[in-house]
Specification:
Two copies of one chain form a homodimer. Chain A is mainly alpha-helical. Chain A contains six helices and two strands, in the order ααααββαα. In chain A, a hairpin with a 7-residue loop joins β1 and β2.
DNA sequence: TGAATCTTGCTAATATATTAGTAATCGTTC
DNA sequence: GAACGATTACTAATATATTAGCAAGATTCA
């Protein structure tokens, strides 16, 4: 009984980050919806644009999508023609995921609109602020790397 | 045919925020798992601890949980005895959600461990850095408020 | 060679997220 | 006080997240 009440002195930082991200993503969501593509699918298209064809494991690493999530996402993307999957000849376990002409065209249509949102966001937040924000987030990732000190 | 290739000059900021958040939450997850509580459930317990009994709509606002998500989360929480739900007498539409003795005891057990993780995170990131990070995230939320300038 | 081990992508089960829509209730107006 | 609009919590359908586990293919080494 009478267990001491919980005293949490720190603000909920993961929640704060979630909220900030949500406010940001809100600016992009209408765009994604208008093009009939989900946030995760767009993340994958983006990395494939930049890095070329990749394997699921690499996509998962870059887009922060777990293997089970990827299984579904990639299957749906293949179904609607956003990516194609091919088994590697020399290693039957592995798969190569690449963009299709259709998804490249979609990306080309979306890119300027995406850039416009970034421009607006930068305008609202300030150019300097944005630079520092990117750097801070990079730093969080780097310093909390689980491979480093636990 | 020759549609111009997409050129995205900005790094994917929502993804960057997701990655930073994930690196952070990774430090808490083992703790939550050990106590058999999910991230969302813990968020709700925290706000109820701080704010007292609330209505679903308020919880959703504070925890960034959509109404449909809340329906399921609160139902499961009630089932395992983490919260209780009661209809308001003077307004039959509304519901009042409150903690139970069990969830208060759970929070009391978890609080020091949660605080320990924050201490470790602050040690890794630096105290000053953390302060600026909180402020920056607050600023993002404030400046991207959808009620403000579109 | 062949057994132990690792890697890769996958499935299963459950919990949440997103979008759309709905029934019950409340407040207000005519 | 009946009609209307707004609010509240909810359901339905689908997409994704999390945890656990697995089977096939590749690798290592006795």
């Amino acid at each position: 009984m009478g267990s001491k009440p919980a005293s949490l002195k720190h603000r909920n930082l993961p929640l704060l980050m979630l909220r900030a991200r949500e406010h940001l993503i809100r600016r992009f969501r209408p765009l994604l919806n208008a093009h009939g593509i989900t946030e995760q699918q767009w993340r994958i298209v983006r990395v494939l644009l930049e890095a070329g064809a990749l394997e699921p494991r690499e996509i998962g690493e870059l887009c922060r999508l777990s293997s089970p999530s990827l299984a579904g996402v990639l299957a749906r993307m293949e179904e609607i023609g956003l990516v194609s999957r091919k088994r590697l000849a020399h290693d039957q376990r592995r798969v190569r995921v690449s963009l299709t002409p259709g998804s490249r065209a979609l990306a080309a249509r979306m890119a300027p609109q995406i850039e416009a949102v970034y421009a607006r966001v930068e305008q609202l937040l300030g150019r300097e602020f944005c630079k520092r924000l990117y750097a801070a987030l990079d730093s969080v990732i780097d310093k909390l790397e689980p491979t480093a000190s636990r």
